[in-house]
Amino acid sequence: MDGASWHRGDKLKKWENIIPLFQPAYSPEVNPVESLWHHIREKGKFKNTTFHSLGEVENRLV
């Protein structure tokens, strides 16, 4: 979890058998999907675009 207030607030349910692991706010090295965002921004041209299917998104990325 990052340090967002909703991840560490008093109302967050705490489980006996789960220990939360807190990450730095921005840590792409521990979140593999972050490496895809640069590729998507550069090749995808997704700004102001609506897609009607996953296939359309995939075609835009190729």
UniProtKB/TrEMBL annotation:
Q: The Tc1-like transposase DDE domain covers which part of the protein?
A: 1-46
The protein's matches in Pfam families, at most eight in alphabetical order, are given as: DDE_3 (PF13358)
Q: Which InterPro entries match?
A: RNaseH_sf, Tc1-like_DDE_dom
Cite a single GO MF annotation.
Answer: nucleic acid binding
Q: What is this protein called?
A: Tc1-like transposase DDE domain-containing protein
Species this protein is from: termite gut metagenome
